[in-house]
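hey so i finally got around to running both of the ones u sent me last week. sorry it took forever, my laptop kept dying halfway thru and i had to restart like 3 times lol. anyway pasting them below in the order u listed, first the sequence line then the structure token line for each. didnt double check formatting much so if smth looks off just lmk and ill redo it

first one:
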Amino acid sequence: MKRTIEELLGRSSELLYQFRAPDGKKIRLADYDPAWAGDEDVPKKQRKEVAEDLLDQQVDALAEAQKLLYAADTWSLLIILQAMDAAGKDGTIKHVMSGVNPQGCQVFSFKRPSAEELDHNFLWRCWKAAPERGRIGIFNRSYYEEVLVVRVHPEFLAAQRLPEQELGDEFWHSRYDDINCFERHLTRNGTAILKFFLHVSKEEQRQRFLARLEEPEKHWKFSAQDVAERAHWDNYMRAFEDAIGATSTKWAPWYIIPADHKWVSRALVANIITATIKSLNLEYPKIDRDQRAEMAAARRMLENEA
């Protein structure tokens, strides 16, 4: 029996299991419905209202969880968002993180590599942007572009001037190994990692591109190159399947989030992030006897001023 969004978001463990990619196993994106929106026996309007209410609740809960993360100063959280164009990465960041203190959150959008970045290994530019302890770091695209876009367009590798090596399965598996080792290193040193693939259908992407063309306030979002990339859709899906299957691990899991309905994807992402921070068992720092004495002295001084 299908669960409603409200029921799923009330059971974080069940929610995490349903949308989490299995560790180290091949996946088929065809097995994941990008238009999933809960129990279809419940009217869509009602499901949407429930999801939006729950998103509001999760935004508040995430704000509290982020304060604890910042105060504890032992863990950081890295959130990676990958998707086809128009899947809603920017909107997810905007809505899910709307209650978080900006001082405790860092967002990086990785575009075409610069000349300096191309002179380093493919992980370098993301490595130096990793969040410090106590903070949430968000990567809008990431080093995964190197096994997604670059795999679909291997001609991009020429700009990296790599030592001669055969461009085959072994090359890509080596990159998956590098990514897994990098993420393992981060988690061993106190960075929890969440990776979200916003799974949008080709038809929904087409409709969103048309909306950008029809609404003047969205013209700035339009890119002819994004539309041209639709010709490579099947290749991108295979690249995502291979990358997710090879790099979804116990320490850095992938979540395949249905993204045809933005109200669904935002509510799910918010819940998973909040549940993950809570699972770290963080505590506010405890003060010792000397600190308590200092605080008592400070209180007396302030009271005496009155």
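and the second one:
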Amino acid sequence: MDGIIREVILVDGGSDDAIAEVADGVGALLINAPRGRGMQLAAGAQAAQGAWLMFLHADSVLGSDWADAVRRHMHGAPGKAGYFQLAFSSAHPMARLTAGWANFRARIFGLPYGDQGLLIPRALYETSGGFAELPLMEDVALVRRLRGRLCAIDMQIETSAERYERDGWLRRGSGNLWRLVRYLAGVPAERLAKGYDR
């Protein structure tokens, strides 16, 4: 869009869906990596060639005017990473509350999750160590290293509420919070990933 997109990279971790057809249909580069968000995100970054990198989960969608918001961030905060404002694709009353907590956590504690996307200069990505090849908490590990070099982008990103609606908003939300607390307390991500349903 307007020269912002240099390339689109999809990283598959062994799915059995029609990802190859999707990639071919939109002219994206499809690469394979070991299953796990950290491994897949790191592989995508390694394959990318642009001066800026934008990471999006497969179930997250930006608004139609996202390119303007991205351009404003690039020009206004050229040395910083940015994340988007979370919303869920659900009319459930808990959707707004859960998204509000996520946006509060990101703003006050500097801890956006991967569902909020990440726009980052390649140089900053590399000097901060990039995504660790972790099965879980790869997003938290990276943004903690970006303290002081991370800010919100004035653009909403909508992510799927399927898992919250399946598991229950309180159950899933409290489980995510408990995993975060345990990770910050030093519990290895590999241990936290056991039994976690993405």
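quick thing i noticed on the 2nd:
The chain has a mean pLDDT of 93.
anyway thats it, ttyl
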